[in-house]
Write a structure and sequence with these properties.
The protein starts with a helix and ends with a helix. It is built from 29 helices and 15 strands. 53% of the residues are buried. The chain is α/β, with parallel strands linked by helices. Its EC number is 3.2.1.50. Keywords: Glycoprotein, Glycosidase, Hydrolase, Signal. GO terms for molecular function: alpha-N-acetylglucosaminidase activity.
C-alpha cells in the first residue's frame, strides 16, 4: 500500500511538468505544419489540417492525438502537443496510406484521394515519456552532423512521438568559459578535452585528452548548432535534456586549488592514465557546488532550460568506496548543485552503472544512490531493459520513476540483430510489475541507422497499451509499407528474419557485431550464432526473387544490400572455420583454398557490393567529418578522429573494432589486408612446420591497422555499380555452395 502511494506521488510530481503553456499551442502547430511541408511537399501538405489543443489530453501529461476527415475533405490532425500531432500524422500516413518513414529513406507515395478516417480516431499514450538517445549516440552517430541532418532527425523524432531527448552539443564551449573563470589556462583546457569522436566518454569521465584538442571553431559551430537543435525541439513541445556537472574535473583544477580533495579514478577501456583515470571531486569539498552551479548557471543562461538534466558520475567506473554513505553523498552533491541553480531540476540518470557492474552495485549501494534524491526528482533510464532489466531486481528502482529502454545497438555496428519478442512484451511487463513506477518507454542505441524494423516497432510501442498481437503479420505489413507494395516473397523473407536474426532471447543478447569478418583474426574466434543460418540464406533468396517487382524502391535496395552483406558475413564465418580446421589438420591445400576464397574473392565482392550504395561508403562517412572543418589541417584532424573510432579506438587498439562498420573502402583497405596477412601467416606456419604465433601476428597486423588510421587516402563518396546485379552475382556464386554444403 505504501509503495502504491509512493508511485502515485511520483506520477503526480512528473505529470505536473507535463505539456507547455496554452500559448505554445500555435507555435507547436506551426512546427508540425512546417514538418508536413518538408515531408510531403507544399502541395500535398495543403490536404492536411493541423492543430494543437491541450484540452485534447483527458489525463495531464498523456499525449493524445485525434484523426478525422480525408476522402473529399482535408485530413484533420489534432494533438495535445506538437509531438502528439506529429505522431498522429505518422499514424495516418502509416496505417491509412501505407507510407513509411525511415533513416535510410522514406516511402511517401500518397493514394489519391486521401483515405477517409472512419469517424474520429483518438489515441492517448499510456505513459508520460517516449525517450530517445544514449550518451554514446552523440559520438557514434551525431558527431559530424550539420543542421540539415539534425533537422531530418528531429522530424523523425517528432513523427515517432519522441518527447524527451538529450541535447548535449556545445557543452564543451560552456565548460571552457567555466574553466577559464576558475583560473585554468587555455593550454590546460585544450589538453583536457578529447577529440570530437570521443566526447561522449569525456563527458562521462571515462576519458580525457585522447585524440584532442578541440579547435576553437568547433566550439563556435557547436554552440550555433545547439541553439538550432533546441529551438526546433522546443517548437514541437519536446523536452530537451541538458547536461549537468557529474563531479569530474581536469587535473589542472588541483593546480588552481591546491587544497581541493579529489580521487584519481581507475583506468577505463584499456587506456592508461595518460587518457583515463579521471579526477573526481570529493562530494564534501566546498568547490563541488561552486563548479556545479557555475556550469549550470552559464548553460541555462546560454540555452534556457526545460528543467531535466543528465549526469553520469560512475559510468563503467567503480566508485572509490562501496560505503552507502559515500555513494549517497556523491549523489546528493550532484543533485544539490542542480537545484542551487534550478529549483525545479529533475536528474536523468542512465541506469547502465547498475547493470554493468552488478557485483559492485548490491542492494545497499543501489539504495544509497536512489534514496539520495527526493522521489520524483530522479528519473532513471533502465537502459538495457529488453535484455537485462534492472527494475525487476530493485523493486521498481525503489520508488523512483524509470523509463523502460531498448538499447539494442552497441558501437553503431552493422549486422542484422534484434530481440523483437522481448521488445514487444517488455513495456507491458514493466507497467504491470508490482508497484511499478514506470513513466515511459525509450530507445537508447549507441548508434543509429541500422535494423530499422526494430526501431519502428519500439516507436509504435510507445503509443500502445498492449503488445503487438501478431509480430509475423506486423513485419509483413512493415515490408509492404517500406517498399510501397505488398509482395509475397518479400513478406516471407521478413518472416524468416523475424524467426532468426530478429529473435534473439536471453541475457546474452547484445547488438554488438562480433563476426570474424570485423574482428582481428585469430584461431580462437567464436562463430556461433543464435539463429539458424538457413533462415538467412532462404530470406536472401526470397528477397532476390522479389527484386524484379521492388527494385525501384530505395528501401528495398538498401535491405537487399544489407541482407546480402549479412549472408557474406555468414559465409566469412564458414570459410574461416574451414581454414582453421585445415590449419589444425595441417592440410595446406585446403587452407589455401578456403583462405583464398575468403580473402581474395568474398571480401572484394562485399566491398564492391557496398560501393553500390551511398549509405555504405567510407568516403561518405569521412566526408561528413571533413565538412565540419574550416581548414585542410582541421579536416585531416577530424578524418583521423573518425578513422580511429571506426578501428583502433585508441592509440594501441585499446577498444579494438568496438565501433566496426561494413563500409566500402573499410572492407577493402582495413578488414581485407588483415585477413590476408592472417591467412598467409597460417599457410607459412603449415608449410614450414612451425606453430602460428598470435602475439607476433598481433604486432604485425597492428602496423596495418595503424597505417589505415594515419593514411590520407581519399575514398569515393558517390556510389558505383548496381546493387541488385551485384547481389545476384554473389548469390549465384555462393548460394548453391551453401545448399550443397560445399562452401
Amino acid at each position: 500500500m505504501v509503495a502504491v502511494a509512493v508511485a502515485a506521488a511520483v506520477g503526480v510530481l512528473l505529470l505536473a511538468r507535463a505539456g507547455g503553456a496554452a500559448g505554445d499551442e500555435a507555435r507547436e502547430a506551426a512546427a508540425v505544419r512546417a514538418l508536413v511541408a518538408r515531408l510531403l511537399g507544399p502541395g500535398p501538405a495543403a490536404d492536411f489540417s493541423v492543430s494543437v489543443e491541450r484540452t485534447l489530453a483527458t489525463k495531464p501529461g498523456l499525449d493524445t492525438y485525434s484523426l478525422g476527415g480525408g476522402g473529399a475533405a482535408r485530413v484533420r490532425v489534432r494533438g495535445s502537443t506538437g509531438v502528439a500531432a506529429a505522431a498522429g500524422l505518422h499514424r495516418y500516413l502509416r496505417d491509412f496510406c501505407g507510407c513509411h518513414v525511415a533513416w535510410s529513406g522514406s516511402q511517401l507515395r500518397l493514394p489519391r484521394p486521401l483515405p477517409a478516417v472512419p469517424g474520429e480516431l483518438t489515441e492517448a499514450t499510456p505513459n508520460r515519456y517516449r525517450y530517445y538517445q544514449n550518451v554514446c549516440t552523440q559520438s557514434y552517430s551525431f558527431v559530424w552532423w550539420d543542421w540539415a541532418r539534425w533537422e531530418r532527425e528531429i522530424d523523425w523524432m517528432a513523427l515517432n512521438g519522441i518527447n524527451l531527448a538529450l541535447a548535449w552539443s556545445g557543452q564543451e564551449a560552456i565548460w571552457q568559459r567555466v574553466y577559464l573563470a576558475l583560473g585554468l589556462t587555455q593550454a590546460e583546457i585544450n589538453e583536457f578535452f578529447t577529440g570530437p569522436a570521443f566526447l561522449a566518454w569525456g563527458r562521462m569521465g571515462n576519458l580525457h585528452t585522447w585524440d584532442g584538442p578541440l579547435p576553437s571553431s568547433w566550439h563556435i559551430k557547436q554552440l550555433y548548432l545547439q541553439h538550432r537543435v533546441l529551438d526546433r525541439m522546443r517548437s514541437f513541445g519536446m523536452t530537451p535534456v541538458l547536461p549537468a556537472f557529474a563531479g569530474h574535473v581536469p587535473e589542472a583544477v588541483t593546480r588552481v586549488f591546491p587544497q581541493v580533495s579529489v580521487t584519481k579514478m581507475g583506468s577505463w577501456g584499456h587506456f592508461n592514465c595518460s587518457y583515463s583515470c579521471s579526477f573526481l571531486l570529493a562530494p564534501e569539498d566546498p568547490i563541488f557546488p561552486i563548479i556545479g552551479s557555475l556550469f549550470l548557471r552559464e548553460l541555462v543562461k546560454e540555452f534556457g532550460t526545460d528543467h531535466i538534466y543528465g549526469a553520469d558520475t560512475f559510468n563503467e567506473m567503480q566508485p572509490p568506496s562501496s560505503e552507502p554513505s559515500y555513494l549517497a553523498a556523491a549523489t546528493t552533491a550532484v543533485y544539490e548543485a542542480m537545484i542551487a541553480v534550478d529549483t525545479e531540476a529533475v536528474w536523468l540518470l542512465q541506469g547502465w552503472l547498475f547493470q554493468h557492474q552488478p557485483q559492485f552495485w548490491g542492494p545497499a549501494q543501489i539504495g544509497a544512490v536512489l534514496g539520495a534524491v527526493p522521489r520524483g526528482r530522479l528519473l532513471v533510464l533502465d537502459l538495457f531493459a529488453e535484455s537485462q532489466p534492472v527494475y525487476t531486481r530493485t523493486a521498481s528502482f525503489q520508488g523512483q520513476p524509470f523509463i523502460w529502454c531498448m538499447l539494442h545497438n552497441f558501437g553503431g555496428n552493422h549486422g542484422l540483430f534484434g530481440a523483437l519478442e522481448a521488445v514487444n512484451g517488455g513495456p507491458e511487463a514493466a507497467r504491470l510489475f508490482p508497484n511499478s513506477t514506470m513513466v515511459g518507454t525509450g530507445m537508447a542505441p549507441e548508434g543509429i541507422s541500422q535494423n530499422e524494423v526494430v526501431y519502428s516497432l519500439m516507436a509504435e510501442l510507445g503509443w500502445r497499451k498492449d503488445p503487438v498481437p501478431d509480430l509475423a503479420a506486423w513485419v509483413t505489413n512493415f515490408a509492404a509499407r517500406r517498399y510501397g507494395v505488398s509482395h509475397p516473397d518479400a513478406g516471407a523473407a521478413w518472416r524468416l528474419l523475424l524467426q532468426s536474426v530478429y529473435n534473439c532471447s536471453g541475457e546474452a543478447c547484445r547488438g554488438h557485431n562480433r563476426s570474424p569478418l570485423v574482428r582481428r583474426p585469430s584461431l580462437q574466434m567464436n562463430t556461433s550464432v543464435w539463429y539458424n543460418r538457413s533462415s538467412v540464406f532462404e530470406a536472401w533468396r526470397l528477397l532476390l526473387t522479389s527484386a524484379p517487382s521492388l527494385a525501384t524502391s530505395s528501401a528495398f535496395r538498401y535491405d537487399l544490400l544489407d541482407l546480402t552483406r549479412q549472408a557474406v558475413q555468414e559465409l566469412v564465418s564458414l570459410y574461416y572455420e574451414e581454414a582453421r580446421s585445415a590449419y589444425l589438420s595441417k592440410e595446406l591445400t585446403s587452407l589455401l583454398r578456403a583462405g583464398g576464397i575468403l580473402a581474395y574473392e568474398l571480401l572484394p565482392a562485399l566491398d564492391e557490393l557496398l560501393a553500390s550504395d551511398s549509405r555504405f561508403l567510407l568516403g561518405s562517412w569521412l566526408e561528413q567529418a571533413r565538412a565540419v572543418a574550416v581548414s585542410e589541417a582541421e579536416a585531416d584532424f577530424y578524418e583521423q578522429n573518425s578513422r580511429y573510432q571506426l578501428t583502433l579506438w585508441g592509440p594501441e587498439g585499446n577498444i579494438l573494432d568496438y565501433a566496426n562498420k561494413q563500409l566500402a573502402g573499410l572492407v577493402a583497405n582495413y578488414y581485407t589486408p588483415r585477413w590476408r596477412l592472417f591467412l598467409e601467416a597460417l599457410a607459412a606456419s603449415v608449410a614450414q612446420g612451425i606453430p602460428f604465433q598470435q602475439h607476433q601476428f598481433d604486432t604485425n597486423v597492428f602496423q596495418l591497422e595503424q597505417a589505415f588510421v594515419l593514411s590520407k587516402q581519399r575514398y569515393p563518396s558517390q556510389p558505383r555499380g548496381d546493387t541488385v546485379d551485384l547481389a545476384k552475382k554473389i548469390f549465384l556464386k555462393y548460394y548453391p555452395r551453401w545448399v550443397a554444403g560445399s562452401w
